[in-house]
Specification:
Layout: E1 3-6, E2 11-16, E3 19-25, E4 31-38, H1 61-64, E5 82-85, E6 96-104, E7 123-131, E8 137-146, E9 152-160, E10 166-178, E11 183-189, E12 197-202, E13 208-212, E14 221-229, E15 239-245, E16 250-256, E17 262-267, E18 275-277, E19 282-284, E20 287-293, H2 296-311, E21 325-327, H3 329-332, H4 338-351, E22 355-358, H5 386-396, E23 400-405, E24 409-410, H6 415-419, E25 439-440, H7 446-463, E26 467-470, H8 492-510, E27 515-518, H9 528-533, E28 536-538, H10 545-555, E29 564-569, H11 582-589, E30 593-597, H12 605-627, E31 629-634, E32 641-647, E33 653-660, E34 670-672, E35 682-684, E36 690-692, H13 693-698, E37 701-703, E38 710-718
Parallel strand pairs: 21-22, 21-30, 22-23, 23-26, 26-27, 27-28, 28-29, 29-30
Antiparallel strand pairs: 1-2, 2-3, 3-4, 5-10, 6-7, 7-8, 8-9, 9-19, 9-20, 10-17, 10-18, 11-12, 11-14, 13-16, 14-15, 15-20, 16-17, 24-25, 31-32, 32-33, 33-38, 34-37, 35-36, 35-38
Helix pairs in contact: 7-8, 10-11, 11-12
The protein binds (2R,3S,4R,5S)-2-(hydroxymethyl)piperidine-3,4,5-triol.
Length: 719
């Protein structure tokens, strides 16, 4: 069984796939993390803490020991998993074992996104109760291990079982010690239109801290952090990774302690989080997903991809081929009318495009970005027949109809703001800070959530909408709800997320046939939390094919290709001014949810002919790209080449994608070494040449690409 309990030694071994995670309870009731790594036999690691002797001065023996839920005030000096201030005004907390349960399958986390099971045998769960005898604070550490993949989920539920209030100041969903500090940290950093570059730094004896306090996971840092062995690469070596299934502010840290041991923590950001627990109240932390791989970063990513694609994303579109779309944003920005839109739609039909998406500017009087957010009624100057009329015409052309909304926002120049000036996040007496000329609705308030739910459901119902792009274009300021009592105002950011998740749950379940795509100025909220409600995300506002190589490459560390929106846009590219060929743009966009973001009516006949071929190819390949096993082969980050491959689930075909960034004189063709093929099987390339899996893996496949920004996709069929 995935969770083994040895009562005589008080040892829990959680095993699945190729991993084990071992916990032990000391005779005095402290929960220790004894091991996380390659699979070991059940019960084979014992709770022997002699590796942690303690030293004569500075730091108690406990400090050296691998606490699973470290708390403050009694000799622990690192990042706590639970920081709780009690009614006496101190935060000394001493959590001791109080019981446990082993459950088949996995329970949902109330109000929060989380991975799930469809059959009990897929996973087993463990809940370990801990209790602080003095204050009555109870913490339940939650674990689920997936039997086949070994993906391990972690969370914590904290309850005030005492008689006086307790304030949580810090909660880590996962806090895992690792032996030694001879590791590199690998994580994803960026900014708007530069999302998710891969960063690798040796940790030595330093501290690594990634965080967001923006009220969104953010463009800057992704809620994802790994430790790896110094020699780990894409295909081999050990990786210990944590990804947070949460869309708000977060904190991810690696501490190295006095004795040179490391700890990976992931949870709420204490700068913008606090939670009051009155007696009997509880707090459920979001979920962190831990993945260990001895097969390098691509091995790690494959575990995340499968889990996030099949047991985090939900709904009918989870497993359906995603439609090829055209979005009018970069074609028209705010400047369109029904006739212009229908021009694009008629061209789209000729190219075989399946879905038209009407982006920003269709509601209120939104000719620029300084008004109308919150007023979700069509602008009849632009669309005389409203959304319903346009939708009918798009459907009559045989395309699906999609629409952009930004439900969390309110423009000061809007009827909604004039009616409810107190509905935005604000602090009395302070400036309401504008970003992109807009404010954020206070979704911690139930009546505001209800307004959003009603307004968006009304648009979807009256418009007969098939697809929604749910955008969010600013981060939080003045994030303290005036509706909450002062002692609870630090709860606003998390209460907002709970309100947002409620709104998303209600809206997506009211329209189960609608395909939802999340967006936040591109990829400013690309995280597992959003994926639970919406199976795809707009990866970046940067649509340049070369910039996209790095962005999609970094995003793929955690997220499957089925989650990434990737479109062909016009050249010179609107964000970076670069010109790349239509073929190259198509070769990059096909490795995601493919679409166009340009005025199709302005394409030449030759371009239209190629565009139609790219659409047809996408339809042929999307079964493979959406569900195949993805492996990164060459990083674009050194500016020469990029390459990756996708192997179908049944192994019968493989797609090799090779991109040349900057060309160089007198260099031979590149030989790209593929990975994970069957050594003795034969694979045929499009020219009918046959290679064994071993040759493709060890000798490589030669690709001759001349010129900057060139690309080639090679589809191999297994004989
Ligand atoms: C930001 C998005 O990322 C863009 O694709 C577009 O929808 C604009 N917002 C519209 O305001």
């Amino acid at each position: 069984m995935p969770v083994d309990y040895r009562e005589q030694d008080h040892i829990f071994t959680l095993s699945g796939g190729k991993i084990s995670y071992v916990l032990g309870v000391t005779p005095d009731g402290r929960l220790m993390n004894l091991y996380w790594g390659a699979r070991v036999p059940d019960g084979s690691v014992c709770c022997d803490l002699s590796d942690y002797p303690g030293f004569a001065s500075f730091d108690l023996p406990e400090y050296w020991q691998p606490a699973e839920v470290p708390t403050l005030g009694s000799g622990w000096y690192g990042t706590p998993a639970v920081d709780a201030v009690n009614a006496q005004g101190d935060h000394v907390t001493d959590l001791r074992y109080a019981g446990h349960r082993i459950l088949s399958g996995k329970k949902p986390l109330p109000g929060l996104p989380a991975t799930y099971t469809e059959a009990d045998g897929e996973a087993e769960s463990l809940e370990i109760d801990l209790r602080d005898p003095l204050t009555g604070l109870e913490a339940t550490a939650l674990y689920t291990v997936y039997a086949a993949s070994g993906a391990l989920t972690r969370s914590i539920r904290i309850r005030n079982g005492g008689t006086a209030p307790i304030t949580l100041r810090g909660v880590m969903s996962a806090s895992v010690p690792l032996w030694g500090s001879d590791y590199d940290a690998v994580y994803l950093k960026g900014g708007w239109a530069r999302e998710r570059s891969v960063v690798r730094v040796p940790i030595g004896r330093t501290e690594t801290c990634l965080y967001s306090q923006r009220g969104a996971s953010g463009h800057e840092s992704s809620p994802f952090l790994t430790l790896c062995a110094r020699n780990t690469d894409e295909l081999s070596g050990e990786v210990w990774a944590a990804s947070f299934v949460y869309s708000g502010s977060f904190c991810a840290k690696i501490d190295v302690n006095n004795g040179g041991n490391s700890r990976l923590s992931m949870g709420m950001n204490p700068q913008v989080f606090q939670w009051l627990l009155n007696p009997g109240e509880e707090f459920q932390a979001p979920e962190a997903v831990l993945v260990y791989s001895a097969e390098g970063f691509s091995g790690m990513s494959r575990i995340y991809h499968r889990l996030y694609r099949t047991r985090l994303a939900r709904g009918v579109w989870r497993d359906r081929p995603r439609p090829v779309l055209v979005n009018n944003w970069e074609a028209t920005y705010f400047n369109f009318n029904e006739e212009k839109i229908l021009d694009i739609v008629r061209e789209a039909k000729k190219l075989g495009i399946e879905l038209f998406v009407l982006d920003d500017g269709w509601f209120g009087r939104r000719d620029i970005d300084n008004c109308s957010l919150g007023d979700w009624t069509p602008d009849l100057r632009k669309l005389p027949n409203g959304i319903a009329g346009l939708s009918a015409k798009v459907h009559a052309e045989g395309l699906m109809f999609g629409i952009w909304v930004e439900p969390e926002m309110i423009s000061p120049d809007s009827d909604l703001y004039r009616a409810h000036p107190d509905w935005c996040l604000h602090v009395d007496g302070r400036t309401r800070t504008l970003e992109r000329n807009q404010l954020i609705l206070d979704l911690s308030r139930k009546e505001v959530q209800d307004y959003v739910i009603d307004a968006i459901c009304n648009v979807l119902r009256t418009g007969n909408v098939d697809y929604v792009k749910w955008d969010m274009n600013r981060n939080m300021t003045e994030y303290f709800s005036m509706e909450l009592p002062p002692e609870r105002r630090m709860e606003t950011q998390h209460r907002y997320m709970l309100g947002l998740y409620r709104a998303m749950e209600e809206i997506t379940s009211a329209f189960p046939q609608v395909l939802f795509e999340s967006c936040s100025g591109g990829g400013g909220r690309f995280d597992g939390g959003m994926l639970y409600y919406m199976p795809q995300t707009w990866t970046s506002d940067n649509t340049d094919a070369i910039a996209r190589l790095s962005i999609q490459y970094g995003t793929s560390f955690v997220h499957p290709l089925s989650a990434m929106g990737a479109h062909i846009s016009a050249v010179p590219n609107h964000q970076v001014g670069r010109t790349t060929s239509l073929q190259m743009r198509g070769d990059v966009a096909v490795c995601g949810n493919f679409g166009f973001e340009l005025d199709l009516a302005k394409m030449t006949d030759e371009e239209k002919e190629l565009a139609a071929k790219l659409v047809a190819r996408t339809k042929e390949l999307r079964g493979l790209t959406q569900t195949g096993e993805f492996t990164r082969l060459i990083s674009p980050q050194d500016g020469k080449y990029a390459a990756w491959q996708i192997v179908s689930e049944d192994g019968s075909e493989a797609l090799l994608c090779v991109y040349r960034i900057l060309s160089c004189a007198a260099t031979p063709p590149i030989r790209v070494k593929m990975a994970g093929l069957e050594a003795d099987a034969e694979y045929t390339d499009p020219e009918g040449r046959t290679f064994s899996g071993a040759v493709l893996e060890h000798r490589g496949y030669s690709v001759w690409l001349r010129g900057d920004f060139t690309s080639r996709l090679i589809r191999f069929k297994k004989k």
